[in-house]
Each structure stands twice: as C-alpha cells, then as structure tokens.
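Notebook entry, structure prediction.
Reason for the run: the old model in the group folder had no record of what sequence produced it. Starting over properly, with the input documented here first.
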Amino acid sequence: MMKKIIIALLATLPLLASAQSTGKWITHTRFTLSKLQNVVDTKDKVYGLVNNSLYCLNKSDRKLSVIDNQNALSGSLISNIYYNPDKQYLVITYDDSNIDILRADGKVTNIPNIKDAVMTQQRTINDVTFCGDKIFVATQFGFVVINDATGQIVETRVYSINVSSIAEVGKWRIAFYPSGNVYYCPTNAVQETFSAYKSSYIYGLASGKIFAINDSTMLVRDNTKLRKVVIRENESGELAFVLTDSVAAVATNVQKTPSGYLANFFAGKYYYTFDTEGNIVKKNTLSAQELVSCSPDADGSFWGINANGFHSLSQVATYYMPEAVNIVGIPFWMGYNKNTHKLYLTATSDNGILPSANAGALYEINKFDGSKWEYSKPSGTSGSQGWYWPIFDPNDSTDTYYISSRLSGQFKVTDNAVAKIINATNSPFVARKAAIRFDTEGNLWMVHSSLSNTVPVKVLPKDKVKSGNFTTSDWTVYKVPDVTNTNSFKYSFFDISNKSMTKAFNCGDYNCPLIVWRNNPDLSIAEFESKSYTGLNASDGSTCTWLYSYALRADLNDQMLFGFDKGAVIFNPVEAFNEDFTVKKIKALDGAKVYAIEVDTLNQKWVGTAGDGLYLFSPDCEETLQHFTTGNSPLLSNVIYQVCCNTDNNSIFVVTPLGVQQFFTDYIVAAEDYSNVYAYPNPVRPDFTGWVTITGLMSNSNVEIKDASGKVVKSFAGTAADVMWDCCDENGERLPTGNYSVFAAQPGDEMPEKPFTKVMVIK
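New structure, fully documented this time:
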C-alpha cells in the first residue's frame, strides 16, 4: 500500500509564540556575487535569487523590489526557484521544505505539506521539474507530485531514499539517486514501491538533475558535468541511457529559451546555448561571473545578474542594483553612530566564533541611513588583514569611525579614506588586534591581550584624539595584571561604565579572567587598581565559571553585563573591588551560550545567543519581556552574532549567519528638548515611497513643515516623540523638489524663527 505523509497541524506551539508584543521585523537582504544562486527571465519580470532572498525587476518601469514574507511569500530562507515557462509560474522552495507557487498575476499558493509533515526522514527538497499540470518535487525521503492548478499534492512516495531528481520524459518516469543509478517506470504504470522500478547505471553520473528536452532526450547535470542523454528502449521494455554531447564543467542551471536552451556555468564565466534537440550551439564567454536567462515568451533579450546588479546583456552599462547589504565578506560587527545617524556594518577577520578563520577579509563597510545601504572599501587600508568592530568618537560629528585591524593597528576612517593609522609610529603598539573604546568624555582606550606585552592598556586623551597629531609619549600606559594572556585572535571585549568610568575586559580565550580596573581621573598619572576573576560568586550562592566569553556591556545605571558560554550575569563594577563581591545570574540564560548584549534607551537588555534566539530583558534582568526564535517570529536564525541599538528610533539590528534583520519596537522615547531633531532618510530620493521619520521631538509637539517661501505645507498636532511624513502636502500631493524646513513647539508656544532641521526632497 502506498505510504502517505501524515500532515499534522502544529497546535502545540509554545505559549510564548502568542505572547509577543507588537513590533515589526524587517529583513535587510544581502546582495553579493558569491551568494548568487539563480536568475529567471519571464515575459514581464526578471527574478534573481541572491543569498536566499528573491529580487524582482519589473521590465516596464525598471523598478527593483524584494519579494518576501513581508509582502507575498510564506517563508524566509529561499533555497531555489524553478520556472515553468509553459504555465508562466515560479516555484519557490525554502530551506525548511516549504513551497510557494508565485503566479504571473502575483498571487501565491502555499504548499506547506512537506514542511509540516510528521516524519523521521529528512525532507530537504533536491529538485523540481514540470510536466503538463504536474510539479515533481524530489526530496531526501522520495518525492511528491503537485497539481499546479490547485496546489494539492496528488501523489506521495516515501521511499526513505534520497531522490536527487525526478521527471517525466515522454512515456517514462525517470528518477536519479546519489548512487549514480537511474530508475524508471512507464508513466501509465506508476510503481508504489521503490523495488518495483527498473534500474540502469550511468557511469560517473551521480545525483543528476533532469531537464527534459523531448520525449526521448534530456539534459542531465551533476557535480562534474552537463550531459545530453538519449533514451533508447529495447524490445523487452528496458531502457538504455546513451550519453552524447557533454560539457566537462559544473552547470549552475539549465533553462528554456526562445530558440532552445541555455546552461549557466557561473564559475567559468560563460554559458552554453543549445538547439531544440539539446545539441550544443555555442559557448558564450562573459567578461565577469554572472548568471543569464532568456525567457521563451519574451522578446529574446538575455538578462543577467552580476556583482553590479541586474542588467540586459544588450545594455552592458546600465545596471539595477537593489538596496541591500553587499559586503563581500561575512557581515558580523555593527555600531550605531549617534552623530551621523547611521548604522555601520563590517565584515570580520577571524574571531573565534565563525567556523573557520577569515584572516583575509576585505576591508569593507556598509553604512545604513534608514533607507539606503552604502558600500565602501576605504582607501589606505593595505596590509590590515581584516577588521573588527567600529567605534565612534562622541565628540566628532563627521562621518568618522575607528576600527581595529588584525595585525596593522587601529584605523581612523573619515569619508571612506584612512585619515590615521594608530601603529608603532605614534602609539605603544602591539601587533595584534586591540579591543578599543571611547569613554563618555572622548578619551580613546585600547586593550591588547598578546603575550610578552608590556603595554596592555593605554589611553589617548581627548584633546590629542581631536587634534589627530600625537606621538607615543602622548599615551598613558597602565600595566594591568592578567590582561596579557594569549596570542590568539579570539573575541576580546572591553567596556567602560558610564558614571564611575570603571573598566572591564576579557580576552575571550580559554579560561581567561574577567579583569576590572579603575584609574586616576588625571589620565597623565598611570595609577590604577585592578581585580581579576576566573570565577564569580553569584548572589544565589552558586559559582559562575566559563571556558570562553563573548560579550561585555555597560548599561545606563552603571551596571555591567557579562556573557559567556554558560550564561550571563549582571554586576556593579565598583563592587568588584570589595571582598564580598557577588554577581546576579540572569536565570533565563542559565546554560545558554551568549554571543551578544546590547542596552537600549530604556535600559532594557537585548541578548543574542548561539542557538536560543534573541531575548529582551527588563532593566534589572529579572523579567523576560520577549524571547524571539525562528518558531515564533520572522527571525532568520536562532544564532545571533551581534545586536545593535538604533538609539534614535529604538529599533534593534541583529546579525545572524543568514542575514541582517531589524526589529522596530512598539515604544518611543520623547526628547526633553528640541536639540536633537532630525529626519531620515534625508535626502529623500525619487524612488523612495516610504515615510520620512522626523524624530527627537518632545511629547505632544505641534509640528509645521514649510517650503522655501515659508508656506506651511504640512502640519501635525499633539505628536509623540516622532512624526511620520509621506512628503506630501495637506491635499496628499507629492511635493516638488526642494528643501523643506521642520519647526516644532509645545502647545501654546509660538513656532521658532529658525527650523530645527531640514528635509531635502527630490521628486
């Protein structure tokens, strides 16, 4: 009897899933050449799959958009896309084995049966093929057949065998398995058991993916070659599979074109075209790595995607690049610059968390201003061998960040160029990455944990930081014991409490101590007091120990949080110098590996873990306010590398192995005055159709927006801490290009003569 997949409604979801407060998740897609997976040209649109995200270029107006679970789709991480040119729909498969059918009119049919099935077998989707009204889905347990009109599964085969591809070719149903064997049966005599199929062996053709050409011909690609295979039947009904033309390279995909077929060879920078019988016509060389497609129902134009974005191959100079993270390396470190109102995101060198060293990481950064990602590789970075975390001088309002390199010192980068390198010529230098931090006054601190290090802790006074002219003698060195421990490049952490200016550090390596110290307020005097802990006594009587640590963060009340491989604690660093010093465990994190800690403007704590998602705790860490996982939220992964707070609008950025996301909370903090009113995005570009946020307002403000002549074009009354403006006037008409001034006042007060900020609108 045919085995059936038993579909279960997951009615026993955790209670927390229904208890999440309001808020909005946004996924910032990543567009980079190394993550280019597929491109599909259709009559009206070009689809591109990059880093598990689906982009769509509308051919008529050349507008590029993202199609995701925020606007149409049913899942997050897309594993592949498959186009049926005869029926003009796109099948979208996901990492969790969910399936969507995206039709030409934009409607989506979700088929969650495989994803939701209760079964012990692996259910990964390997391939999708089409024949008539059938969609064949090859999986690790067997295969299913879907009726494309209804979206219903009409056939299920659970063989407990990994099927790499299955298709109907003429009157035969043919399936490939990783063993290299090909199995077949007549389409009018479908077999219910695997053993009932006949089999043949094709030498060297393992895990083949089938693309049917006609009733007796198919193109089959595997992990070594692309082959044309002709099917021949003998008198006894047995099949022989004859290999003819082949390309000795790995084909990325095979697609239909108006004149036949094409196969992409991404790694080789070329594609092959074939005629309607599957015979090779031409090898087409490309100038760069890209994938191309040509719809059989369009005008015959070839479209491609490469590092510059989408483009028509006939218009090589015109590209359409999505607004996305486009770091080539592994996005990891983040920092939010309150002065420029931008998020800074960098790749990473090796850090002890990623599965392999990344010493050759590019020196690149993405900046996000609320609407647009800007990519740069700053000039003057030669030899730095990869970067770590960006930090910002609280007294510098320019586009400047400081960043630690692997071996070449610390870089001051201004306007995408290295303005200063802090190295052996101007500092007590150590050729290993430094943990760097500005204190609230603007003094620059550096901590090195390298072996044989005579300058483990040093500080450069703020006046020298500001001037940019300093020598080694301008630094004060503190020989804090136990800082010097290891020569590795683990996950070092250093932070400074906001009120007492107490410092704490951990080098992140095996069994390294937590070190706390305080120094003379006169930075020219190298006096300090320090304490070192390889274990911490908790207030509940237990002892906290760690093998590796990952996070250290000061909060707004002069407390510090320390995260490690067995949980996290909160403590008062001033009390660390007392004999009876104890810490408080964050109970919800007991046993969890804590990768990241961030403090928001309400002093709430956001904690990212190595497998248990994202937590939000009350200021005292006694209450779990939120716990986001992939099961109860759009979170892409339960592994959280980094967390960063946008202190202007209280959104939270998270970096996961699968992408960058942003969560907009449901609270807004009103300002005490109008000294920090600003708007973003600014300028507003012609293609921006969202809302401009005017923030930094006092509660219950009256707001007026005036054009260059002083005419009020839009007003708001009784506002909260910010205002959302659509760049339209009171009649809902989009305003023309120009500078618009923002005025605000409390009820009963007159509007000031000068605006608090201006917004440049480009129509």
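Summary: Confidence is low (pLDDT under 50) at residues 1-21.
The old model has been moved to the deprecated folder.
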